[in-house]
Write a structure and sequence with these properties.
The protein folds into 5 domains: 2-63 and 118-203; 67-114, no CATH class; 210-329, no CATH class; 340-386 and 426-547, no CATH class; 577-695, Orthogonal Bundle (Isoleucyl-tRNA Synthetase, Domain 1), CATH 1.10.730. It is built from 27 helices and 20 strands. A hairpin with a 5-residue loop joins β17 and β18 (288-296). α13 runs antiparallel to α14, α15 runs antiparallel to α16 (482-495) and α22 packs parallel to α25. The protein is of the alpha+beta class. It is 50% helix and 14% strand. The model has no long low-confidence stretch (mean pLDDT 90). The relative contact order is 0.05. The chain starts with a strand and ends in a 9-residue tail after the last helix.
Length: 697
Amino acid sequence: MTDLILEFYSEEIPAGMQAPAAADLQKKVTEFLKSNGIENIALETFCAPQRLALIGRDLPVELAEQSEEKKGPRVDAPEKAIEGFLKANGLSNTDGLTVREDSKGAFYVLEEVIPGRDFSAALEDFIPELVRGFSWPKSMRWGEGTLRWVRPLRALLCVFNGKALACEVEGIKAGNTTFGHRFMAPDALTIDKADDYLSKLEQAYVLADRARRLALIKEKAEALAASEGLVLVDDAGLLAEVAGLVEWPVPLMGKIDDEFMDVPEEVLVSVMRTHQKYLALRDKDGQLAPRFITIANIETADKGAKIIAGNERVLRARLSDARFFWDEDRKTDLSARKPELEKVTFHAKLGTVSDKTDRIEKLVAYFANIESGFSFEDLSQNVSDEVASEAAALCKADLVTGMVYEFPELQGIMGGYYAALQIGDDKVGNAIRDHYKPLGPNDAIPATSEGRLVAMSDKMDTLAGFWLIDELPTGSKDPYALRRASLGIIRMLVEGGRRLNLDGFINAAMQNYPASLSASSGDSSASERLRLFFIERLKIYLRDKKDIRPDIVDSVLAVSVQAYRDDIYILSLMAEALKTFLASENGTNLLAAYRRVRGILKKSPAEAGLIDETLFANDAEKVFFTALNGLQIAEITSVDDYTNNLQSLAALREPVDVFFDNVLVQDEDEKIRQNRLALINKLITAMDGAADFSLIE
């Protein structure tokens, strides 16, 4: 058994593409091995700015002989179908085919024996195909060749069983050499053994293991920060990106000029993070420190002094621009900027950002009409209708400021600062700052009631508009982040403990659009389709966050009355209650009994009629019947009703167990059998009143 080493050495691979490419490489090689009858082989992948690599250990030298069967057409199939199968497999007649039979009839089978071969030969055929067929989000051609790769491919390291494989791609011959750090160790390195790959590269100032590189960056940066009494600002995403930019990480600390420290810290962090990939630091009091850490890709004789000076100079220029925008933007009130939003298109079919702002204001007013001082269970302060209204009116005004034009990632944040300074009310500023939240599944929901109202109004307006023009998410494509918008509303309702009629909210949002838009869509069910989209997203949210399976939610929805089918918060509570019930011993046994009864009734349906107590031949029947009659399944008008119904079902567990332990349902006497079938059918009816247990997987 032997080892395989593959490395594709190229110009710098974009940081975000490296890890996915490594996973794709592992997948493709695994599929190749399986196709050759090789299973359960551990593959290691590595990625760095200039290389994508894989190591496979203990592989066979020879491939064993394999047999393969190809199923052909039926024996009585049209002649052209049979001829097509023969032609595709290089045959002139059916003499070499075997005839098999199954439930659908007789059909032809081609049995082929694939002879064993040298595994290195199989690899030499596979590797060029792997390179040519490798998929990148973006790729390029260079020179006169036709090969496409993420960046120009410079070398192929392909070693199996200690020997370089004899293959090439576009004139690049495979060999047993790679290269170290471009500046500190640019000479070729010979790699013959898998165990030498990482160690030899490290000696040449390359850490090919991404996980180790990331851990080392974090460790060294934290140590450098601690030496100055500072701590890193937590930013896992930036650390991961930086790990894809360097092969030999060297953390260096630079200074931020004091003249910039009164600019909002989000601006400073954004400039450093987005444009320069610097790590921000805080002091012991949690304040942003006038320092930054940059990760260099080289060790220098002056210990990075020139690198630090250069980075400080670049940062100074960047922050001077930010300082200018900060000073200039404050000279104009946000309210005076609103007319400029008429020049900003939200969507060609949905109007301008000014139109969107008007619709958001109307939706915030809709909440005030539902309940003055709208409240959330997890917040002590109710909504101030005045604050929410003013925040809605100004929430998009910062889009036409110089700062947000230059740094789009600061939208909302800058509006919050400007509103707080110009209006003198932090509540309005906080609502504007938070109204884009949550930006993802791990982002916090808005911290204030007003922020949540504006956020929900903004998101629902977007969803309603795109449903009216029928531009919906498809598969993995969601260019307008509509799934994220719906999830944001769901989270604010569930995590905020707030009941809301979803159907009414959707219709209120759609009514804010011109009637002609709704008519042009040609579909009056847009609101219902959007409601169902929310239900599907709720299932995903409950699955991911509360470990509640979608079939449990479906079971709840099947019995929810009209008033609760649209209440996201109540549905989540009911689903959680059903999950808890099913996980209990009583719930597990009752579900088993339910399925058993369903199976019996499917084979022997119960005839319509009353249960005759005089036909009870067993005390277990009497106890079961009494328990069923005493069952209290109330109409579901609250979560308490639902929980009580489930608790009532739990009381059936013992009578049900005793019944099936002592009673044979399929009695020889027809009357007794039908009476017992009617009795167990009553159990199904009772349980289905609490939840549709037939939907539980």
